[in-house]
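Collaborator request, handled under Task 6.
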Amino acid sequence: MRIIATHLIAGLGVLVFHVLALPLPWLLGPIVACLVAALLGLPMKSVPFVNNAMRSILGVAVGATFTTALVVSMAGYWTTLMLVPFMVFCIGLVGVPYFHRLWGFDFATSYYSAMPGGLQDMLLFGEEAGGDVRALSLIQATRVMVIVVVLPFILQGYWGVDLTNPPGVPAASLPLSQLALMVVVGLAGWQIAKAVGLFGASILGPMILAAVMGLMGILQHRPPAEAIWAAQFFIGMTVGTKYVGVTGAEVRRDVTAALGFCVILLALSSAFVKVIHLLALAPPMETLLAFAPGGQAEMTVLALIAGADMAFVISHHVLRIVTVIIGAPIAAHLFKVRPQD
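Structure tokens returned to the collaborator:
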């Protein structure tokens, strides 16, 4: 019943966003509706397997956009890719003292709350270091939610990006053989990546396999619009349900601290975007999408719908996640992040 109720709440969010003509109803509608329901204390539950399967759709969609010319052009991204580790360092330099000294979190919780990595990775590392897993979960979920909610309004209001265009062609217009191949590529890529321990397996595995198939000329289409909408729906619902069971005390401390940190993140991201734009290293819209420290799946959705250069945006987010996953445990060791620190 909780699963059914969660889907109904998310569906209501989609309807409200459609009626009010707000951007990205299939993504932002479920996020906002499930967030409100969670804050009201309503019991909700999502299905992890389905959520990961939906993420694999995005992986196939991104991989299918790769061409030989696009892959070759990625070598030209090195100037902005070099800035990604520096940005992660700056975020940590500001974020750790913010959580530790201003809000009084223990050092382990402060450190992994500040790191803009994957939610599951940061929770795992934070728990091993003795951090507060519940606080970490709320802070990281808030980071993803705020970035994802704010960016569409910036894209639409500042650059006039049309976010109402369908993210693909209708399923009825695609050959059944191609639709079946997409399913196989998505599931196989996900499970292979999971078996070898690749981070973000549900997205990166299908993306890599779809790119290989696309470069070979076997996969000739992106997933249909209906599949991308479904992926948005489940990803949005997952973000919103992270707040299930949140208490008033947690809202006052953890969520408020996270909201303040989001302002810092947006300011840092804007500074990097401005510098890159002034140096004419990359187009401003792609730079914003590439350097905004949101979730990998959510940023993929925004890039797909905005019609951005997928290779540019995804390569920067992958490097950010790699930098955090590899660098966080090393830095934590150097700073002696220990249980009860």
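The cover message to the collaborator said: "The chain has a mean pLDDT of 89. DSSP finds 16 helices and no strands in the chain. Please let us know whether this matches your experimental observations."
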